[in-house]
Amino acid sequence: MPVEVRPYGSDDLRPFLVAAEIPFAYAVRDEYVRDHERILERDRLLCAYDGDAIVGTAAALSLRLTVPGAEVAAAGVTEVGVIPSHRRRGILTSMMTRLLADVRARGEPVAVLWASEAAIYPRFGYGLATMDASFDLPGAARALRPAPEPGGHVRLVDVAEAGGLLPRVFEAARTARPGFVTRTAAWWELHVLREREQDREGPEPTFTAVHEGEDGPEGYVRYRMRHAWETHGHENVLEVRELIAATGRAERALWRFALEMDLVGRIRARHQPADSPLLLLLSEPRRLGFTLGDGLFVRLVDVAGALSGRRYAAAGSVVLDVADAGAPWNEGRWRLAVSGDVRASSEPSLRGVVERTDDAADIALDVTDLGCCYLGGFTFGELVRAGRAVEGRPGAVHRADALFAVDRAPWCPEEF
Ligand SMILES: CC(C)(COP(=O)(O)OP(=O)(O)OC[C@H]1O[C@@H](n2cnc3c(N)ncnc32)[C@H](O)[C@@H]1OP(=O)(O)O)[C@@H](O)C(=O)NCCC(=O)NCCS
Question: What is the rounded distance in angstroms from the CA atom of residue 202 to the CA atom of residue 115?
């Protein structure tokens, strides 16, 4: 019997989740099912069925993705898996084809995801769009170069108060930085604010501190201490779970707050931006142990819609010749024409008109690689140097990079 991909057809979410967790070898507890009933969207669950058995799963979340100067609707692809007995038979390929058609039908110009392994998704048109940093700083090397700044203060808050303050800060930060995606109220409650007795990562409580200025909260840090008391003293590890700031001074003050805490032997953080201010704040940036990996992958489902959905940093035009084996409607030459005067703002503000053209291509590339440049995470120059794009006319790459330039590295601070 052939495997068939179709929407999940039951009201009971458990069988879907059980199948989705088999490829990761995780158990599915009652609490996990209850949580997912509030996070997953019932009409966006796909399954591959072998007879009645679910052998593959995929889901999409209806998100908003911040793009340079604007935001667009995005499908957040998640819960992707094929059970081990059915791997490498083309089941993921069938699910991705169906998902792409569904996303297009909904009018979402992009799909986004985090990959368990970076090699899986480029073949389906997903390009690496943000880098994801982590660090592991010895406490002995946490000296900061600039002196503390006046203005604002840092205050610890309990979960109830955090529930009111943090989403406001997050919204201000989210809309200012490409790569962020929206959080629902359920996501805040279940994935951010809730304290579990024991989760996958350990029992230590998470503390929240906010930085407040004259007009209210500007940033927050959520952290916990991994305790390790040894005979010679402590070797505690401070884990910064999330530090989000809407202003530069809040970001600096919160890092100072975290780094200068007592009884800390090491400070670790994951999911940090590639342009972390710590590289310039620390006296010894080498000791940060800064590591870069792949972050968010972006698939341009509708090239014209996606390119006209973001803003640009300079006026000018460029003709892109796009190859897209998975989405023939995207294939061919597109002219992006950007006009207007650059506003005195730090983020790209000019609109672009995207139309089909018969003109010669300035740059030829695959849609996967256009996804790498979409949020500003990589430049066309970098693609050409890596052999992943071809410049058709001298100077075209320079022109395109001026249009697509961003003032901050795109960053997605969490996995979904
Ligand atoms: C990753 C996974 C979903 C792939 O499913 P699948 O049905 O085996 O994939 P397909 O058979 O459709 O493979 C399509 C192509 O991708 C390749 N591919 C699939 N998984 C890959 C991987 N992990 N690394 C590299 N290539 C991979 C296949 O070799 C195949 O290539 P080919 O067309 O050149 O032969 C499945 O192996 C799985 O569930 N893994 C564990 C859970 C996981 O990592 N899920 C993804 C979460 S983001």
Answer: 24
Task: Say if residue 187 is in the same domain as residue 328.
Answer: no
Best mutation site among 3, 4, 49, 120 for ligand 1 pocket (most ligand atoms within 8 Å of CB): 120
Q: By residue range, what is the domain housing residue 78?
A: 4-108
What spacing in Å lies between the alpha carbon of 118 and ligand 1's midpoint?
A: 11
Residue 117 falls within a domain, yes or no?
A: no
Which ranges of 201-302 would DSSP assign to H, the alpha helix? 248-259, 278-281
Q: State whether 137 and 283 are in the same domain.
A: yes
DSSP 152-218: -EEEEE-HHHHHHHHHHHHHHHHTTSTT-B---HHHIIIIIIPPPSSBTTBSPPPEEEEEEETTEEE
Residue 110 Cα distances to 101, 345, 375, 401, angstroms: 12, 26, 12, 21
Q: Give the predicted TM-score (pTM) of the model.
A: 0.97
| Residue 191 and residue 251 share a domain | yes
Whole-number Å distance between alpha carbons of 188 and 164: 11
> Three-class SS string for 389-402?
EEECCCCHHHHHHH
User: pLDDT tens for residues 60-98?
Assistant: 999 999 999 999 999 999 999 999 999 999 999 999 999
Beta bridge partners of 226: 237
Same domain, 159 and 206: yes
CA distance 369 to 157: 43
Q: Has residue 416 been placed in a domain?
A: no
Enter the tokens of residue 325: 């084996």
| C-beta 89 within 6 A of ligand 1 | yes
162 located within any domain: yes
d(CA 269, CA 105): 39
pLDDT digits (tens, 9 = 90+) for 380-403: 999 999 999 999 999 999 999 999
Q: How far apart (Å, rounded) are the C-alpha atoms in residues 10 and 255?
A: 47
Q: Which residues pair with 336 in a beta bridge?
A: 318, 354
Pocket test for ligand 1, best of 26, 46, 61, 87 (most atoms within 8 A of CB): 87
| Nearest residue to 412 via CA among 44, 35, 32, 76 | 76
- Statement to judge: residues 76 and 222 lie in one domain: no
> Which of the following is catalytic: 8, 49, 121, 297?
121
Asked about 416 being catalytic, the answer comes back as yes
The response to whether residue 296 sits with its C-beta less than 6 Å from ligand 1 reads: no
Question: Which numbered atom of ligand 1 lies nearest the CA of 95?
Answer: 12
Active site residue 8: no
